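Example 3.2
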Amino acid sequence: MQGFVDCHCHISAGDFDRDIDEVIENSKKAGLLALLAVAEHAGEFEKIIELSQFPGFIFPCLGVHPVQKVSPERQRGASLQDLDAALPIIQKYKDQLVAIGEVGLDFTPRYVSSDADKEGQRQVLIRQAQLAKELDLPNVHSRSAGRPTIHLLKEQVEKALLHAFDGKPSVAMEGVKAGYFFSIPPSIIRSEQKKQKLVKQLPLENICLETDSPVLGPEKQVRNEPTNISISAEYVSKIKGVSLQMVMEVTTQNALRLFPKLKSALRP
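Structure, written as tokens:
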């Protein structure tokens, strides 16, 4: 199958409101077969479901991100109350979902100031991991707190995608042993110390591609779009010393293994 799968993007972000049709059309022209649209909070769930009406191209993932916005200036760690607001909507659309996400742990000090905050995030992740298992869906996972995240996921789920992983390659290899996948964004172009080293270590059979649009693009402070998936693929090809065609084929097969609901939509 010829084409890329963007395993993690925020196509419902306000950044795309004014030209969403054009962004989607350009994505198709750039060789994308599918976009997995991930959520951050219950307030955008209906928008993602609406976007997934683009037949066989945008696939919905609903979940509660580990960091929740209180105001434009203030953010905090997710709580069980955030999850309680989200669960009825997830249940309502469970048959349409390809994953539970975006979920995870983010122990960045400005979001968590105590062990209680960390424990709150853990409980939110555990409950969403259990839900993913119950619905036979993988987790689309967030950044930061690499080691505690992989250890927690290993206790809970067999299928997981770790997006924009910023932990040590040695920690990532624990995830590889557990059968997890790691998706690589276009910001790899400016991340020699972390993402390029990570790709060097990871087997191609555990790599997927993502854009995390509208962020994590090739240039800071410039809106990222799904069309930049080719940058991720080119860098993986260069670092692994394999053809771009092979990167396309293997990462797309990896996405189909991880997200089996894509198969019926993408295969004629």
